[in-house]
Amino acid sequence: DTDWLVADDPDQFGAVIDDFKHGRSSMRRVSFNGCDCLWVYGPVHQDAILLLTTPYGKILQPIDQAEGFIQAQIDEMLGITRYGIIAILALVVALAFAFARTVSKPMQILSEGAKRLANGHFDTRVHITSDDEFGEMGKIFNAVGPQLESHSHMLQTLELAREVQQNFLPQHPPTVAGLDIAGESLYCEEIGGDYFDYLDLGADPHKVGVVIGDVSGHGIPSALLMTTARALLRQRVSLAGSIEQIIADVNARLCVDIEESGQFMTLFYAELQPEEKALRWLRAGHDPAFLYHPDTDTFEILMGEGTTLGISCDVRFEEYHQALLSGQILLLTTDGIRETRNPDDEMFGDASLRRIVRENAAESAQTILAAILAE
Q1: Rounded to the nearest 10 degrees, what angle do helices 365-374 and 349-359 cross at?
Q2: Mean pLDDT computed over 343-353
């Protein structure tokens, strides 16, 4: 039987209904049947909206799963801290014997506080009321605990974010007859805005979509925009339409979400049909792809006109076509691999990529990928 969709907070529920009326995708934290829930929704058809409500407790379960790993990292950090504090304590004890009894008490207070701090009690504070050097040391000591606690929380948050983002990236390449595929993303920070994915193009098992993108900036804001773009693209690919229509719709959605942030995203989208020996692609401000022809030992650069996503909602995109031959190698990258520098401050560059592809043209896609990353 069907039930009416209701919420405990009429104001929040009114905002949800307003989003429904205007066809907006969003996520909101709304109480549902007395349970604190996250509502995620968006139009999937002209007359249909998909809504998922999930208790916040279930969303936070990955934190519990990561707790063991994070705790081990904290224990290791505290272990290193203990050695430093032990050295400080040894110095404190030596000085205590040299000073008069008037300075013994503040030294003892600092010593006991340091022990508690070393055992992970970041809320430890010392109370030294003198106006001398010991009073200043007490103020400095009291500032250390919050900084260690903040650093610990930051490490936990970044590690959890890194784990979640890595799970968004493909764990295994798709199996498509006539194609050999490999891909990998390595972030220079805990998280970032580089993105690649393999797209399910419906019931046809003889073709596959490959997309690669790069969000402006670094860190958590870029990672969030990357996650949004991934969800929008996967949702839109499941519906009918040409590549031009798919990317145009994704761009329109992104513009609404990020128009005030100043962020943007480059994208290269390719559809490969090995049975028909055909390649279709669209380039939205991203680095062009390389298509290597082993028979002639030449590289073809797949350019294409297209504006970066998130800049303008009304921009038009153009789709391109290319015939494929057996043995050809299609290489898609972000600028991160090209701009990597060696100890002599020399960029890796396109020439190195082409040389490695040429030298390993007879090998598997995974071997070519490993050779690039190794060098």
Answers
A1: 140
A2: 93
